[in-house]
Here is the input.
Amino acid sequence: MLFSSIPFLYYFLPCVVLLYFIVPKRAKNTVLLLSSLFFYGWGEPRYLLFMLVSIAQGYGFGLLIEKYRAKKRSKWFLTASVLFSLGLLGYCKYADFFVENFNALTGLSVPLLGIALPIGISFYTFQILSYTVDVYRGTVPAQRNIIRLALYIAMFPQLIAGPIVRYADIESQLGDRTHTLEGAAYGVRRFVLGLSKKVLLANVLGALVEAFKATESPSVLYVWLYAAAYTLQVYFDFSGYSDMAIGLGRIFGFRFSENFDHPYVSRSITEFWRRWHISLGTWFRDYLYIPLGGNRVGRARWLRNILIVWMATGLWHGAAWTFVFWGLWFAALLMLEKLWLLPRLEKYRPLGHVYTLFFVLLGFVLFDASSLSGAGATIAALFGGAGLPAVTAESLYMLRSYCVVLAVSAVAATTLPQHLARMAERRPPLRTALRVAEPAALLVLLAVCTAFLIDGSFNPFLYFRF
Here is the structure.
């Protein structure tokens, strides 16, 4: 079930909110948990088994890790939990990838397993891993109430595509949280804005991307339109989902961390990855990069650590060589910046901004490609290396058709809207006008989004791939 769908918006969510707020406090977690399991099982009920088994092992091993910490057996139980979590993820997500590559190397024809990827498994697996590791480190106590732990792992607002919530960040909220009208109003506002990002920007940009992939008359201009549209689409698709998740969490009294901070205003790749998918970046930093030694080792090991983390980041996004090389692409850029380029980018900031957007755009062309050869051909076409005409009638038509949404999306990806809003807040007449107009504007946005969804407009969700 998608957040950006009529069943979710007008059937599931109103029923859950109504039931959640009428039951007594002690039953609220149970209502949210059962609603989350229903939400997850809506499309493929059989994958509930994977989640329930994962929850059970996380709960059991968490208790064992804490119980035997003094006897130094906790490392055995942590290892078992990690192997179970990564083993299940590896089986579901990477088994066929390894079989394909084994066949390619050996010339054999081992049959593929044909395993369908359970939605959201990468996200909830990382949440379980962070929980058991934190219990082992003594950062948090093991959770003895299985409903609370299950809710942490399965909570529907962040279940499908994050943000990757740390147990330590919401431990207290699982047991006792406050609900206020102000918090609910903020949650609704954040949800509607995220829904608008997804439906009115990402989906429209996605239609341009799909039109390019289906065209029989590509041109250099068309390739650039595709690359720009996809770069913006993936941002608004994922950040819109994160906004909706954060908003829903606030309605139910939870405070989730921010997951995006205007990454396209960055002036270096280093800054970009501090602003993009923040919860994933900090997860890899805290649970892989720092345990490997981080940057507090010799240069050779430091560079090795960066490579390992970014290969893992690429593989986390998908079982394909395009994702591995996408991770290595950014690893190479980050190493270049850390070893030499970063001070120069700080000195020439406008140039740094252009450099960042350029290499991020090329990275997302690789990210979207179905093969390395396809990525190479598309990147070559950007620079006229594929023998394409510079312009065709179709590409000019698409430019005229999508120039407004591309321009609006480019502006919306910057901090300019927030800056203008802050300026208005400092002027009492404008502040009053904004507060009066905001509810009406949100209703209009919701109505327009609903109209798009009823019309059956293009409505994919890119991160279902991962």
